[in-house]
Design brief:
Layout (H helix, E strand, L loop, with lengths): L2 H22 L7 H14 L13 H22 L10 H25 L4 H10 L25 H16 L1 H12 L6 H32 L8 H4 L4 H15 L4 H15 L5 H29 L8 H22 L7 H9 L5 H11 L8 H34 L14
Length: 423
């Protein structure tokens, strides 16, 4: 048996697990990501002819695989949201993005500088890498499938899903700032950074997402002929086409593709909110997302068991623990004071700042563009440990916490979009 044959067999087993386990684990305090992580550790512990995952040696591959996983998850998040975009309706989102995210970046950078003694560029990079949240790693705290009622999303699930949909893209300007600080030094780059990396690229991401989303929304639901109307064909893979079109075209004009993908998804969702095709698109993209996430977490488990955390010091671990247990809960709580959520909702939103695949992507990307003056192995160890701790902490607690919140609300389970009709 060759290594390639074994990889195919294991990939198939991982895909089967991704299909079977969500139903098995639905009511258990044990998430699919945690099972995949433990499975990867077991897999690479066994005497099998498998090469240990090495993100330093295979940085480019890690960058592109995680990139695909992130954009797929962003499309899924945007398609699932039932609320129309608005200043008041998305109040929790804007608070988390405007306050929690920048405060988290600053706090992590200060911790890296104080505890680890890292130079400013490396400290800022770690703050940017660990800032994005990723609810896909604890599915109970994200919005489920699209439903008919616009007010069906509870505040906790809505806030965490919409926050993750946008902060993956909004972390990019800070990553670019860290790269500029490492390569240029000083602040001579700041003016161009504000104009290009902040203003232009964010605007290009939003505009690109709106244009592509409106075009695809019209093609899906309002095309002049039935042959061109995508909703009539009921092909779920159109969601993948929309993801790559939005991402690729926006990146070609130097915009932020992550923002464009999420905006595209929200725009398609708004084109015809109660059509059953929204559920088909979301269902397909969710399956692809679950598959990619399962494979990546198997590799992360292999990285851990192969000694990937050996460069981790207690100081590096302390940064991760402080982020998850102090920085995120505190900044999340402060940002929501006066917001729409009650005290319990604010507490849950603040605690579930889940770190995941986006952090691995940003680190792989940044390390391909600059030398930050610290060993790459140590950076990977801290990022991996943070994701590992988040998967365990949030994955185990999410199911009982969200079931408790649902019981307090006493609201019935919402009906999926299009149930019993096609339009």
């Amino acid at each position: 048996m060759s290594n390639v044959d074994l990889v195919f067999a294991l990939a198939g087993a991982g895909a089967l697990l991704a299909a079977v386990l969500p139903g098995v684990l639905r009511r258990l305090p044990f998430s699919l990501p945690l099972v995949c992580l433990l499975g990867g550790m077991l897999l690479f512990w066994l005497p099998l002819p498998l090469s240990a995952p090495d993100p330093v040696a295979h940085r480019v591959a890690i960058e592109h695989v995680t990139e695909i996983c992130v954009v797929i998850s962003l499309m899924g998040a945007g398609l699932a949201l039932n609320r129309r975009v608005g200043l008041h309706r998305w109040s929790s989102t804007w608070r988390l993005l405007g306050w929690t995210m920048p405060l988290t970046i600053v706090a992590v950078a200060l911790l890296a500088s104080w505890l680890l003694g890292w130079p400013p560029a490396a400290a800022l990079l770690l703050g940017a890498v660990l800032a994005p949240t990723d609810p896909v790693l604890a599915s109970d705290v994200q919005v489920g499938e699209p439903v008919d009622a616009e007010n069906a999303d509870d505040e906790v699930r809505f806030a965490l899903t919409s926050e993750a949909g946008l902060n993956d893209g909004l972390a990019f300007p800070v990553v670019y700032a860290a790269i500029a600080l490492a390569t240029v030094g000083g602040l001579a780059w700041a003016g161009e950074w504000v104009l290009t990396d902040v203003l232009y690229r964010v605007a290009a991401g939003v505009v690109g997402g709106l244009l592509i989303g409106r075009l695809l929304g019209r093609l899906s639901f309002h095309a002049s002929t039935e042959k061109l109307r995508l909703a009539e064909h009921r092909d779920g893979f159109v969601a993948v086409a929309a993801t790559f079109l939005a991402y690729g075209l926006t990146e070609l004009v130097q915009g932020y593709g992550f923002i464009a993908v999420f905006v595209t998804a929200c725009t398609i969702r708004n084109a015809e909110r109660d059509h059953g095709y929204n559920g088909i698109l979301h269902g397909f993209i969710e399956q692809v997302e679950r598959l990619l996430t399962a494979w990546l977490l198997l590799l992360l488990g292999g990285f851990v068991i192969a000694g990937g955390l050996s460069p981790l010091t207690w100081r590096g671990a302390a940064v991760s623990v402080l982020l998850l247990l102090v920085v995120r809960p505190l900044t999340g709580w402060l940002a929501q004071l006066g917001g729409p959520g009650g005290p319990r909702e604010r507490a849950v939103i603040s605690f579930y700042g889940i770190r995941g695949i986006g952090s691995l992507y940003y680190l792989a990307y940044a390390l391909g563009h600059a030398d930050f003056g610290v060993p790459a192995e140590e950076l990977w160890a801290i990022a991996a440990f943070t994701v590992l701790a988040s998967v365990v902490l949030h994955g185990i607690s999410a199911t009982p916490v969200m079931r408790y919140m649902d019981r307090l609300r006493g609201t019935p389970e919402p009906k999926p979009v299009g149930e019993g009709h096609d339009s």
